[in-house]
Amino acid sequence: MTEVTYRPPAQRTPYPITVVICAYTMGRWSDLRAAAASVARQLSDDDELVIVIDHCPPLLRLALDELRGCRVIANDGRPGLSDARNTGVAASRGDVVAFLDDDATARPGWLESIRAAFAHGDVAVTGTRVEPRWQGDAAPRWFPEEFGWVVGCSYRGLPTQRRAVRNPIGASMAIRRSSFETVGGFSRLVGRVGTLPVGCEETEFCIRLAKASPVARIVFEPGAAVDHFVPRQRQTVKYFLSRCYHEGRSKAAVARLGGSRSALSAERHYVRSVLPRAVLRALNPVLLRREPVAALRGAAVVAGLAATVAGYVAGSRTRRAPA
């Protein structure tokens, strides 16, 4: 039985935090236990951990039986990450709601770094570093660092110091409760459902929040980090291209909801600046002589961009009724 215990605080904790972990499959049970344990070690008496099980009755029963020191609840909305997160928000009591993926583990100091970020009253959303933990101990040699987002992780091109960003990486982020009161929850029109490699629900939420509350700050906090497990099935070229394609489709959905200017603001810099440097780096003669496989990374950059653009074009032609 997995024991999840709290660490008593010396005094009342400022900005109590509810950590929400959403899970949907028995296949990640060991990952879920590790994620819960990594958070539990950092909780104070004023914090709480909420596990949301997304329409998987066997996992719900197992979590209720095995996990202690946390609240285990079922997603009371539609299947998918957006409604699972919304269920966690509705059940939460903290001033801040933090989200951790069920296959990620929080590094020491993760929760305190998040808490410190919200000491600034204008901070509405905080994101952290998400470091890949590759099954097999290393990324495929052809995999370009600029595409870490394909596996839900940080990537070359992100800021290395604390600064404002458009949106965080969803695997590790925190949102002030009042932000949900301002703009509502995550949209059902975007977000992952099961294993379909889509997303962008946090992007759409942050765009909506920035429009409703222009003074609200969305910041990247590099002092906090989590380790995100990347299984071998997500290390293939097939998954890489599929994820890029569906990211393009997701961005098209966000553009319909929030406008293309906001939906693609970060992507324009990424395409104009980060990716060209990646290709030039891969084709550097010195690097090629030392590491010929670098040319494959350059090819992966071009192929990944092409797949993403194709997904965006396909998604732009799709019309969906508003929820």
CATH level-3 fold name of one domain: Spore Coat Polysaccharide Biosynthesis Protein SpsA, Chain A
Given the C-alpha coordinates, what overall shape results? globular
Using the CA coordinates, give the radius of gyration.
19 Å
Q: Provide the CATH top-level class of one domain.
A: Alpha Beta
Question: Can you count the helices?
Answer: 11
Task: Please write out the topology.
Layout: E1 17-23, H1 29-40, E2 48-53, H2 57-66, E3 71-74, H3 81-91, E4 96-101, E5 104-106, H4 110-117, E6 123-134, E7 163-164, E8 172-176, H5 177-183, H6 201-212, E9 217-230, H7 237-258, H8 260-263, H9 265-282, H10 285-290, H11 294-316
Parallel strand pairs: 1-2, 1-4, 2-3, 6-9
Antiparallel strand pairs: 4-8, 5-9, 6-8, 7-9
Helix pairs in contact: 7-11, 9-11
Tell me what you see in this structure.
- The relative contact order is 0.13.
- The chain starts with 16 loop residues before the first strand and ends in a 7-residue tail after the last helix.
- The protein is globular and about 60 Å long.
- Strands 1, 2, 3, 4, 5, 6, 7, 8 and 9 form a nine-stranded mixed beta sheet that branches.
- The model has no long low-confidence stretch (mean pLDDT 88).
- It is α/β, with parallel strands linked by helices.
- It has a domain at 17-233: Spore Coat Polysaccharide Biosynthesis Protein SpsA, Chain A.
- It is built from eleven helices and nine strands.
